[in-house]
Amino acid sequence: MEEDRLPPTTRGDFPGSREIIRQAYIRKGVPVTAIEIIEASISKGTLKQYTSCYKKFWQFCADSNRDPLVYKLETYLDFLSDALKEGLSFSVVNSYRSALNLIFSPISNNDEKVINRFVKGVSNIRPPGPKYKITWDPDPLLKYLGTLYPLEALDLEYATYKLVTLMALTSASRVQTLSLIKVQNINISVDRVEIKIPDRVKTSAPGRFQPLLIFPFFKSKQELCVASTIADYIKRTKPIRNTEEKLILTHKKPHRSASSQTISRWIKNTLNLGGVDTSIFSAHSVRHATTSAAYKAGVNIEIIKNTAGWTPASNTFFSFYNRPVEKPQDKFAKAIIELGSNKS
């Protein structure tokens, strides 16, 4: 039978991404102890992203009677060509390339040149572009959040909605970052709340600083004061927190740490309540809206990059985020909160 030509490890159902990576490195002669360390370098988010590629590649090789753990340039490019024919975007094809490189590296210089040329062709055929051509004005949302006041009058559900949305608006943080905040890493002083994020985030890398979120107290705009909202939330959740270390808890019993997916859903609900068209815009669009608004309000681009977690040399803001509509983090937060007062 045709299947008998394939080695036992590549027959049958998809074994999972981790097993594919392990088998690929075992075939290279990498010691098992070293493979475990290599696996630790792959974040959960990256592994989840690569899983769709590995599933497709496993099936592609099964259908064409090829070994998915043996590198061949022909197989590599045939698979990416099929992905392009399916109508997948440049970013997805490029992600597939990264996933394949993980299990097939090192690839010869000559093959690498061919692959790079191929990917450049994909970018010309299907140019990468921003998710949104326009973005929304934060002002109506801020006005809605201002109605969720006084804080003590809110139930836990709406107090949580206000907390996560205000934090996302005034820090331009990814939802993943918000989900990692621990109460023990929050310092409340007279004029601000500072939050350290020691856990690994998307932008973590050797030599880069971990996120430091700074929220000043706004005495003139109490209804939109992020620092006060954080302090109130910590106080009201203390009796239900038990052993939970994460700041953001689910508002329904049993009260557990909220996942990034749950926080995204809450933010999207709040955007909808604040008049944002959520059939178009997701929770992640908050980063587009706030960074664009801060730039229009005159906040220095370096401050915006630093607040959003982009490197100084990054062109991400101008390529994908800047859409028409005395600490750096202080200035960013103040620019967003003061939008409403400037328009009234």
From TrEMBL:
Keyword line: DNA recombination, DNA-binding
Gene3D superfamilies linked to this entry: 1.10.150.130, Intergrase catalytic core
Species lineage: Eukaryota, Metazoa, Ecdysozoa, Arthropoda, Hexapoda
Biological source species: Sitophilus oryzae (Rice weevil)
GO BP, sorted A to Z: DNA integration; DNA recombination
Keyword DNA-binding carried by entry: yes
Domain Tyr recombinase: 140-334
Top-level taxon in the UniProt lineage: Eukaryota
Record Pfam families: Phage_integrase
Coiled-coil ranges (or none): none
Protein name in UniProt: Uncharacterized protein LOC115874229 isoform X2
Molecular function terms, GO-annotated: DNA binding
